[in-house]
Write a structure and sequence with these properties.
Elements (H helix, E strand, L loop, with lengths): L4 H7 L2 H12 L3 E2 L3 H9 L1 E2 L2 E2 H7 L7 H11 L5 E7 L1 H6 L11 E8 L2 E6 L4 E4 H8 L2 E7 H5 L21 H10 L6 H14 L2 H13 L1
Antiparallel strand pairs: 1-7, 2-3, 4-5, 4-8, 5-6, 6-7
């Protein structure tokens, strides 16, 4: 099983660990909401469901931009702010191998029920803002409110539906990659049923057969 790097970092600091454990106990640190997961299942990027993209791949400098963009579509109908900045976690990740490197963090702050919640793309958790700032001590470089995101001229051109997969076979190796690493993933319990659901709706077995027939000629 791969390590939960966010929690591994927290555990190194006794004060942070206590803040984390106490906050989790009273519900100020949680997994993403069920409704967020449902919307991630219905949002597609590069042929994959948003849920697969966010949870099957580590958050690195290469994936974080796409992850935050997907989340912005999930919260399309709510008021939110996207923030980019340095956090204690990104400082920890800056000296990793290039494939694991994370030079900055991105998160979305959403107001719900009189609290501001941080949906963090590194920890993949929903954390009350005050707790998040105590744990990660972010240095914010940029804040982008929803109205600015919504005004981007090319935003409506992005296709986040499944239609782009209609005739494509390019996603097959990616699905195979996810399957091969699934048992090591800390989110295995809900990634496995999501992968099975996804394979069914994209007619994965038929696509694999089609690919083999092409390769045989």
């Amino acid at each position: 099983m791969e390590k939960d790097l966010f929690y591994e970092n927290i555990k190194k600091d006794p004060e942070k660990r206590k803040v984390f454990e106490d906050a989790r106990e009273i519900g100020l640190i949680q997994p993403f909401d069920p409704e967020v997961l449902t919307r991630l299942r219905r949002t597609y990027y590069g042929g994959l469901s948003g849920l697969l993209y966010l949870y099957a791949f580590s958050t690195t400098s290469e994936t974080i931009g796409t992850k935050i963009e997907i989340l912005s579509y999930v919260f399309e109908e709510q008021e939110y702010t996207i923030l980019h900045g340095d956090t204690d976690s990104t400082k920890m990740m800056s000296n990793c191998r290039m494939s694991e490197k994370l030079d900055y963090n991105s998160w979305i702050e959403v107001e719900k029920k009189r609290k501001i919640w941080v949906y963090d793309t590194f920890s993949m958790r929903k954390i009350e803002k005050g707790i998040y700032y105590r744990l990660e001590r972010p240095k914010v470089h940029r804040e982008i409110p929803r109205r600015v995101i919504q005004s981007i001229s090319t935003r409506d051109e992005n296709n986040f539906s499944l239609s782009e997969l209609d005739d494509s076979l390019l996603f097959l190796p990616i699905v195979s990659q996810i399957e091969n690493s699934l048992e090591k993933n800390p989110y295995y319990k809900f990634l496995k049923p999501e992968l099975e659901r996804y394979k069914e709706i994209v007619k994965y077995k038929e696509k694999v057969l089609e690919w083999k027939q092409i390769q045989a000629h």
